[in-house]
Design a protein that fits this description.
The protein contains ten helices and ten strands. The chain is of the alpha/beta class. The protein folds into two domains: 123 residues, Rossmann fold (3-Layer(aba) Sandwich); 75 residues, no CATH class. The strands form two sheets. A six-stranded mixed β-sheet has the order 6-7-8-3-9-10, with helices on both faces. It has a four-stranded antiparallel β-sheet with strand order 2-1-4-5, covered by helices on one side. Helix 3 packs across helix 4.
Amino acid sequence: MEASNVILTIGSLCKSFGALKAVDEVSFDVKKGEILGLIGPNGSGKTTITNVVTGALPKTSGTVLFEGVDTSSLKPYQIALKGLTRTFQVVKPLLGMTVEENVLVGSLYGREKRDTDMATARKRAREIIELVGLEKKKDFQVSDITLPDLKKMELARVLAMEPKVVFLDEVMGGLNPAELGEASVLVKKLSRERGLTIVFIEHIMKVVMSITDRIIVVHHGKKIAEGTPKEILNDHMVIEAYLGKRYAQEANNGR
């Protein structure tokens, strides 16, 4: 992988909680503009990796380089201002505010060195709200919308910051088949048309296999595989640890 095409490098990353190694010597690169899947069983370390990379947790050891810069000493908001952001598995709306006001916060806050006057921020927020399909609910209180819409709102708030990289932590949980299809199209559009780099953390394997360029698999805190979706489907360690033989066979048969 050419160094000039790499936007994020995780090197020998470790995170321990006492004697428990939640992340154990994990290394991988993220290329500009790609959709990189990060998968594994519950408790495998996916969200802990996300928390360390985005500054919510301090690393125990290893390196995190964003655009060649070590972000270890930065606070989460400083990392976000540089363009490295995330959504949360458990959504975190700003209560007492409308959908548009929540997204406006992201638009006003946003990446460093951009115009953040109120008019520009509001225009940006409304464009993003329309992009994720929430324009009819922009004036709703966040306490009055469904969980799938809350996830759309949280994604919109992050997108309004105009990030370079975003970790999407199970943004598709709770969606019905039609909503899953719409969300998949949106994620691919963000990558292909807007050049957004996405690290996609999800348990819905049909979606992961259909939209990702590459996949990293973690298990018990360790990286056990890396490759294209097809390569991952045929990796015996991944089948044994996570996918199961039946799923791998059906996916390979195109069912």
